[in-house]
Amino acid sequence: MSKSGWIRTDRVMRALHLYTSMFLVPWMVMYAVSGFLVNHNEWFMGRFQPKWEVLQELDYEPGAEFPQDVQGQALAILRRVGLEGAHQVLSDDPSQLIIYRSCATGLYRVQWQRQPSHVVVQKQLPTTVYSLINALHFQRGYYRPHFANLPWLAWGIFVDTVTISTILWVVTGIYLWARRPRRRWLGGLCLVAGSVLFTILAVLMCR
Q: CA distances (Å), 207 to each of 160, 195, 197, in order?
């Protein structure tokens, strides 16, 4: 590659490295902070004493189109109470279905008693910074296909953008390091040391 070609490539790499990171600052800060909170969950849960408050109760009679599988039933129930979205189903007890619905405004617990058919919707209170950041960390998109749910679609796109940009930052960072021969040995040492340590820890943890 000619000298002018290297200069143009350097400019593109620097721009990608800089401006994608600037644009995604809110997401990266959120994932960094929430990752720390999740990793040190025991430090914060002692100060956060959540309670469940009942928001609504209703008798629910499934119709002929009510799904037979657990996941389909959970979606139908969440749709009925207006809480469609990312959720987790607990179905160990055959007499009831318990659904945890995670969203940025808090955590909801939806309980469906099969006999008699009755639904109770509860919300975890108080909503704190800890619970908000934790909920955002696990929020995901792409599960609602229609246009009315554009915010969830956009969130899913940005999560993919963050993951792709993280790989891009690694690639551009290695490129920028390789273009600085005077300090190449120090960056190379860090790269090798980090890779070896990662491999050792991964092997030991997966035994």
A: 31, 19, 16
**Both structure tokens of 49:** 């004493």
Q: Name the β-bridge partners of 166.
A: none
- What is the per-residue pLDDT across 73-124, written as a single tens digit (0 to 9) for each? 888 999 889 888 778 887 667 788 999 887 767 789 999 988 888 999 999 8
Radius of gyration, CA atoms only, the chain: 24
Residue 121: how many other CB atoms lie within 10 Å: 22
What's the pTM? 0.61
Query: 3-class DSSP state for residue 82?
Result: coil
Contact (CB, 8 A) for 54 and 202 = no
* Cα–Cα nearest to 97, from 80, 137, 127: 80
Map residue 101 onto helix, strand or coil.
Answer: strand
- Structure token digits, residue 56: 């609504």
Write b or e for each residue in 17-29: b if 16 or more Cβ atoms lie within 10 A of its Cβ, otherwise e: beebeeebeebee
Residue pair 106/124 in contact (Cβ under 8 Å)? The answer is yes
Q: Please, are residues 155 and 162 in contact by the beta-carbon 8 Å criterion?
A: no
